[in-house]
UniProtKB/TrEMBL annotation:
Location of the Sec23/Sec24 beta-sandwich domain: 318-421
Gelsolin-like domain segment(s): 549-635
Protein name in the entry: Protein transport protein SEC23
Topological type in the membrane: Peripheral membrane protein
Physiological role: Component of the coat protein complex II (COPII) which promotes the formation of transport vesicles from the endoplasmic reticulum (ER). The coat has two main functions, the physical deformation of the endoplasmic reticulum membrane into vesicles and the selection of cargo molecules for their transport to the Golgi complex.
Source organism per UniProt: Dicentrarchus labrax
Entry's family note: Belongs to the SEC23/SEC24 family. SEC23 subfamily.
């Protein structure tokens, strides 16, 4: 029998889904006692080279308020050519084209290995083709009559872009350049709105500074007036913040309605107004890229990656996506957290308890790529006194309709089931089914979502309360005895993830500008599980003469004089040379033939870093530093400060470097957590 870990991995590879719990409590009351909600990370367009799309329409349930898609979990009567919907139990006849099906000749959508299947269709479910509008028809007549062949247009367009010059308008001393970004954006959105409604399109906004005039202005043109900081926002001293945010939100909603995404490429040494503009990309699925200059190779390579292609030679992007969730009657959907907007589609499977973007069973995601991942949150609504039949399963179906980059209309359907369990008698089985990595990311997304509208300390307190409750529920301990506290293997890493999350830039705004916080949060709520975990708890690799490279604890005890460390935080790649290694490198030992092994040691982290740099979007900032270097702060600010200036006595005994900080260490955090979890007064 496969372990839960293998089961979780198989489901992620096949369906692009990771659930917080892989065995669900069968009643509402027991589900709320689990603390972490039944929820999942879902990647709608997870790349599956082994999943070619089928070229026919999906078969839908005939009940008007259901319309679920035929799937491997449906009961089928092959003789009568009838199938029973596993959501509403409606019996439906197969269409005439299915007359030849039998137990040995089944269509793909009934085979268990095709719990995720993709259809190429002529029209979207419940949607008319974009060309149906009269206005657009006139647009296409104009296009066919007056536009030149594509290759000639492409050549002329390239020439025009090549002739673009820097704005020659003089900027007086002590002033900022006048930028009417809000107006320019309004023109771009309006043009697309009028010419290509409900058709895939991107607006690409390149900004080298904040908007300084017109609607959407973020700061005045006087340089003596600094752009708003977190301190100004907390003191309600950010004059243009509310008005500008409202303006860009209206713009984002206009774009989202038409399925157009807005990308922001902001390169400047100061803030550019991302805090006010973040909704443009967050609500439309667009990219945000932040850098120091458009001339850096970092920006150029990141921008090239926007246009990367898949194994079929198509762009890795999809447009105008509508994602719908259907659930079996024991479940309801509470909401989604990710680059989406609500389509306000009410139905029997929509919960009144909202988490994230809730109150709907359909969301619009204007732009998707293979790594775009949404956090989906559910509620068990089955009553405590209405037991689920033995062997019953809860079912969730994700129906994602989108325009492929090759202009095909496609529908991807993923149908996922999990067993119900009685939390009274099977609590240990439920505990074993806990996916602590997925749960940590899903709770982190809830925290980040709350941080957008609540005070930072309130969010941290909420996270702490949830962690304490989870430890009280599943920890093994004697009352008022912290030393007796133990967590099972399936939960043992969860408190550690929460410790690093509390210190992360997603919840801590100290030392980050409002623009930087917006940028970090933007990427966190759209990346898949692996990348999200790296953001919460960076990966640290050690290189030494004593063996091959190995992952080590993200702890100050890992910083040793004769080691090279490679830290991946998602946003930065830091190569840190220990004190001894740095001295040898300065002495030039790597240039001497007899120290070839030292040269190879220096090269190893560079090669591994290059591998990461080649695949990540956006490209991480590359930092090469050493003991005592100014940029060593990137590493020192992330590691667990198990040794600080307050307990220096062990330094110099191969136990790691002390960190100059007043932050608590993981050990102190865990001791405090244990004390609160076992307290009889809690």
């Amino acid at each position: 029998m496969a372990t839960y870990q293998e089961f979780i991995q198989q489901n992620e590879d096949r369906d692009g889904v990771r659930f917080s719990w892989n065995l669900w409590p069968s009643s509402r009351l027991e589900a709320t006692r689990l603390v972490v909600p039944v929820s999942c990370l879902f990647t709608p367009l997870k790349e599956r080279p082994d999943l070619p799309p089928v070229q026919y329409e999906p078969v839908l349930c005939s009940r008007a308020n259901c319309k679920a898609v035929l799937n491997p979990l449906c009961q089928v009567d092959f003789r009568a050519k009838i199938w029973a919907c596993n959501f509403c139990f409606q019996r439906n006849p197969f269409p005439p084209s299915y007359a030849g099906i039998s137990e040995v000749n089944q269509p793909a959508e009934l085979m268990p290995q095709f719990s995720t299947i993709e259809y190429i269709v002529q029209e979207m479910l419940g949607l008319t083709k974009p060309a149906a509008s009269g206005q657009q028809g006139r647009v296409f007549v104009f296009i066919f009559r007056f536009l030149q062949p594509v290759h000639r247009v492409d050549m002329n367009l390239t020439d025009l872009l090549g002739e673009l010059q820097r704005d020659p308008w003089p900027v007086p001393q002590g002033k900022r350049p006048l930028r009417s970004t809000g107006v320019a954006l309004s023109v771009a959105v309006g043009l697309l709105e009028g010419t290509f409604p409900n058709t895939g399109a991107r607006v690409m906004l390149f900004i080298g500074g904040p908007p300084t005039q017109g609607p959407g202005m973020v700061v005045g043109d006087e340089l003596k007036t600094p752009i708003r900081s977190w301190h100004d926002i907390q003191k309600d001293n950010a004059r243009h913040l509310k008005k500008a945010t409202k303006y860009y939100e209206a713009m984002a909603n206009r774009s989202a309605v038409n399925g157009h995404s807005i990308d922001i490429y902001a390169c400047a040494l100061d803030q550019t107004g991302l805090l006010e503009m973040k909704c443009l990309s967050n609500l439309t699925g667009g990219h945000i890229v932040m850098g120091d200059s458009f001339n850096t190779s970092l920006f150029k390579q990141t921008f090239q990656r926007v246009f990367s292609k898949d194994y079929n030679g198509d762009f890795r992007m999809a447009f105008g996506s509508v994602m719908e969730v259907k659930t079996s009657r024991e479940l309801k959907v509470c909401g989604a957290i990710g680059p989406c907007v609500s389509l306000n589609s009410k139905g029997s499977c929509v919960s009144e308890n909202e988490m994230g973007v809730g109150g709907t069973s359909q969301w619009k995601v204007c732009s998707l790529n293979p790594s775009t991942t949404l956090g989906m949150y559910f509620e068990v609504v089955n009553q405590h006194n209405a037991p689920v039949p033995q062997g019953g399963r809860g079912v969730i179906q994700f129906v994602t309709q989108y325009q492929h980059s090759n202009t095909q209309r496609r529908i991807r359907v993923s149908t996922i089931a999990r067993n119900w369990a009685d939390a009274q008698s099977q609590i240990q089985h439920i505990e074993s089914s806990f996916d602590q990595e997925a749960a940590a990311v899903l709770m982190a997304r809830l925290g980040v979502f709350r941080a957008e509208s609540e005070e930072g300390p309130d969010v941290l307190r909420w996270l702490d309360r949830q962690l304490i409750r989870l430890c009280q529920k599943f920890g093994q301990f004697n009352k008022d005895d912290p030393t007796s506290f133990k967590l099972s293997e399936s939960l043992s890493l969860y408190p550690q993830f929460m410790f690093h999350l509390r210190r992360s830039p997603f919840l801590q705004v100290f030392n980050n500008s409002p623009d930087e916080s917006s940028y970090y949060r933007h990427h966190f709520v759209r990346q898949d599980l692996t990348q999200s975990l790296i953001m919460v708890q960076p990966i640290l690799y050690s290189y030494s003469f004593y063996g091959p490279p190995e992952p080590v604890l993200l702890d100050s005890s890992s910083i040793l004089p004769d080691r090279i460390l490679l830290m991946d935080t998602f946003f930065q790649l830091v190569i840190y040379h220990g004190e001894t290694i740095a001295q040898w490198r300065k002495a030039g030992y790597q240039e001497m033939a007899e120290y070839e092994n030292f040269k190879q040691l220096l090269q190893a982290p560079l090669d591994d870093a290059q591998e990461i740099l080649q695949t990540r979007f956006p490209m991480p900032r590359y930092v090469d530093t050493e003991h005592g270097g100014s940029q060593a702060r990137f590493l020192l600010s992330k590691v667990n400060p198990s040794q600080t200036h307050n307990n220096l006595y062990a330094w110099g005994q191969e136990t790691g470097a002390p960190i100059l900080t007043d932050d608590v260490s993981l050990q102190v955090f865990m001791d405090h957590l244990k004390k609160l979890a076992v307290s009889s007064s809690a």
